[in-house]
Amino acid sequence: MRLSEYEKLRISMDKPQAQELRIMHATLCKAIADPTRIALLYELSENPKHVNQLVEALKLPQATVSRHLKMLRERSMVYTRREGSYVFYTLADQRILDALDLMRAVKSDILNRHRSLAEVTGDL
Fold first, then answer.
1. What three-state secondary structure class fits 47?
2. Residue 8 has pLDDT above 70, yes or no
3. Smallest Cα–Cα separation from 41: which of 115, 3, 97, 122?
4. How many Å apart are CA 73 and CA 75, to the nearest integer?
5. Among 50, 84, 110, 124, which residue is least crowded by beta carbons within 10 Å?
6. Mean pLDDT of the chain
7. Euclidean distance between CA atoms 118 and 124, whole angstroms
């Protein structure tokens, strides 16, 4: 039987200690606590983009996009590369999107369970 990468990770990692949880919350959790930042991470999934491309893709003001990119950069979730007058942003680690996709799958399963329970109890 082959284990998925997620299952291997769960087997190899110990339960996090309090300090690690505080650091994880301060960095990763706060970084993905805003839907705009999550959208930016997904926008960067295929290739690097500069701010103007992200502004156009998300239909948000440049100042808003820049502010959220700054937070993602400070938490090492995106990297930057300068080309002339453009600064390109790149997703730092594909596992960030894997984790977001896993959370989306969990949320979908929860909604499906609630829907099934509502159908059974007639609350729908």
1. coil
2. no
3. 97
4. 5
5. 84
6. 88
7. 5
Q: What are the residues facing 86 on neighbouring strands?
A: 83
The CATH code belonging to domain 5-92 is: 1.10.10.10
At 78, give phi and psi (nearest 5°). Answer: -135, 155
Give me the residue spans of the domains in the chain: 5-92, 94-124
Q: What is the mean predicted confidence (pLDDT) over 37-59?
A: 97
Q: Which residues contact 14 (CB under 8 A, 6 or more apart)?
A: none
Classified as helix, coil or strand, 124 is coil
Ranges of beta strands (E only) in 3-122 are: 49-50, 78-83, 86-91
Q: What are phi and psi of 122, to 5 degrees?
A: 80, 20
Residue 69 has a pLDDT of 98
Quote the CA–CA distance of 72 and 28 in Å, as a whole number.
9
* Residue pLDDT, tens place only, 75-97: 999 999 999 999 999 999 999 99
